[in-house]
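WARN retry 2 of 3 for item q-0093 after timeout on previous attempt; input resubmitted unchanged.
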Amino acid sequence: MAARKRSRQKRDLEANLYETGGYYRYKHPQTGKFHGMGKDKSAANAAARKLNAMLLKPNDHVSRVMATDAVLFSVLVTRYRNEYLPTKKLKQTTMDETGYRLNRLNKDLGHLQVCDMSIRQLAEYLDDSFKNNAYTKHRGLLSDIFKFGITKGLAESNLAEETLAKAADEKERLPLSKKWFDQIYANADEWLQVAMDFALISLQRRSDVCAARFEDIEGGYLKLVQQKTEKFGVRAHLRIEIGPSLEKVFKRSRASGIASPYIIHRRPKRIRESKDTTHWSQVRPEIFSKEFAKARDKVPEIAKLPAAKRPTVHEIRALGGHLYLEAGFSEEYVQTLMGHSTAAMTADYTDRHLEWTTCGAGLKI
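OK item q-0093 returned
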């Protein structure tokens, strides 16, 4: 950034150097922050000359020619999105989440030239803009973008990789109890109650619950391919026997009066086409989460909790697994229904619902 033309009274001061009451301050041309330079005018001018030489971009013919080869970060994001992202073969939900993050990074950093970006700049951006898992996700995506940029000759180094890699956050959310489930259920609309019942009985993720169609019901079974774990094979391809509980859920869904191909459906306030749905009645996973949260926050006991501790729709899956075990079903039964490849993964969900008995051990020896 070029320095502003000095007033007549201050022409004997170097660019970006200011005097107030006999005290000199230097204004960083990139950050805009002021730094004290003491009361010695000669020393302050000398320091300002050195700083300007390092921080101000030269305004000459050579730099203007070189600048024509400079690449904006927005160009790097666009090429990453169009050339590399499709090759990763991500699930649609993951693609949507990545697209959202790319839009955010492009909006915030797209105007910058890649060659001028610094580790400090990215570190401060990540620290100021994101917390917890959002920090981890955006840092990881930035690193991937720079990695791609290096392979295309658009970046010289992976600046994001040099920023602080923070440890994953411990789970803050409280597990969803059956009591809370019932209270949320009482505040839910009809379609949301059906979705909650379906998720609780089937132990499926919100994306799989929302994707299930009536045509997937065949010969007393529901065929379901878990989107998140499809690439891991047989564990993800489930043929779920429809018992009395699931049958009741499906009958209730069919009785909605809406001719929908999806088991979980609703009549929106405004019917309009969307690239994210194949039928106007379809419920997207994020809508399931959003409406669940609305019903949840009507429960006074939950509403008093900090937002980070309130259980999300994902906790229905863990609660269902716990209820199956409590009812006497085997761990293998629950593990298979959840589509987990190991028992440890299932235990990670269900152990959060264990109730601990407080006791003493005060023997003196």
